[in-house]
Amino acid sequence: MRRYTGERQVAARDDDQAAAGRRRRVSGGVWLALLGTALFAGLLWVGGDYYTVPVAERDEHALHRLLRPSGLWGHGIGVVATLFMLSNFLYSMRKRLGLLKRAAPIRRWLTFHMFVGVMSPVVIAFHAAFLFRNLLAVWTWVALFIVVSTGVFGRFLYGLIPSAQGKLLALTTLEERFAEGRVRLERVTGSPARAAELMDLCQVPRPLTLGKMILHVPRRRRALSRFMHYIEPEVNDPRALADISAQARALILLKLQVAAYRELKGFFRLWLALHVSLASFMVLLITAHVGLSIYLGFRWLW
C-alpha cells in the first residue's frame, strides 16, 4: 500500500508539473494572440479608410502617398514585416546552437514560430495595400501563405509525434511508458476487469492510415467519456475518477503512437523536408522582390 501511495504521489507531482507547463504555454499563446489582434487593429485603424477605397480612386486619397506600398508607411510595414518574418529562422537555429537552447524551452520557441508565421501574411497584405498588380510580390505572398498553411498542419502532426525537448522518442521508450501506464491504470481503478475494459479503448484500427490516425483519437476519447459516465456511480470519488480518466487518455495516445510510430516518424520527416524546401523557396522570392524594388528605385529611408 505504501508503495502504491508513493507511486501515486510521484505521478501526481509529474502531472502537476506537466499541467503547470501547459498553463504557461497557454498563457504565452494568449498574450501573443492579444498582441496579434492589437497589431491588426492598429494597422486597420491607421489605414482602414484608405484600404476600403476603390483602387481607381486611391490616387486622390489624402493618405495615398503615405500608405501605398512604396509610401513611407506602406514601405515601412514591408521592411519591418520582412525582418520579423526572417526572425522565424531563430527557431531552426535554436535546435543547433547551445546558447539559444538555454534561452527558453522548445515549445515556447515553437509557439513564437507559429505566431510569426500566422501574422506575417496578414501584415504583408497591409504593406501591399491589398493590391495584386505586382506578379512577383503576389507569388511571394502566395509562397508565404503556403508555407504558413503547411506549418499549421505540421504543428498538428507534431502533437501526435512522441517527443521530449524537441527530439523524437525511441519506440522502446514508448513501449516502456505504455507498460508502466497499464500497470498504473490497473492500480488506480482497483479492478482488473475495469482496467481490461479501459484497455480495450486503446485498441487501434488496422491497417493504420494517416486518416485513421487523425480520426482515431477523438473517437476513442468520446468512447472514454461514455465509459467514465458509466462507472461514475461505482467510484464516488471525483479525484479518483479524474485520475482514471487522465491515465486512460494518456494510454490511448501512447497506444496510437506505438502502433503508428514508424508511419508517423516517416511522414513527419517527409513533411519537415517539404516545409524547409518551401521556406527556402519563399526566402528566394523575398530576396528577388526586395532586390527588384531597390533596383527600380523604391527605397525607404535612404
Element pattern in H and E = HHHHHHHEEHHHHH
Number of strands: 2
| Mean of pLDDT | 76
Q: How many H/I helices? A: 12
- Proportion of residues in helical segments: over 70%
Unreliable stretches: 1-21
* Sheet with the most strands, sense and barrel status: 2 strands, antiparallel
Number of individual domains: 2
Radius of gyration: 25 Å
Structural class, by secondary structure, is: mainly alpha
User: What's the overall geometry?
Assistant: elongated
- Termini gap: 76 Å
Strand order of the largest sheet: 1-2
Query: How large is the share of residues in beta strands?
Result: under 5%
Question: Which key phrases capture this entry?
Answer:
two-stranded antiparallel sheet; 302 residues; mainly alpha; 2 strands
Walkthrough of the structure:
- Residues 1-21 have low confidence and may be disordered.
- The chain is elongated, with a radius of gyration of 25 Å.
- It has a two-stranded antiparallel sheet with strand order 1-2.
- With 302 residues, the chain is mainly α.
- The longest helix is centred in the N-terminal third of the chain and has 50 residues, at 2-51.
- Helix content is 78%, strand content 1%.
Concise summary:
This protein has 302 residues and is mainly α. It contains twelve helices and two strands; from the N terminus they run αααααααββααααα.
Which helices and strands appear, and what pairs or packs with what?
Blueprint: H1 2-51, H2 64-67, H3 72-86, H4 90-94, H5 98-101, H6 106-127, H7 135-160, E1 163-164, E2 167-168, H8 171-189, H9 192-200, H10 210-235, H11 238-259, H12 261-295
Antiparallel strand pairs: 1-2
Helix pairs in contact: 1-6, 3-6, 6-7, 7-12, 8-9, 8-11, 10-11
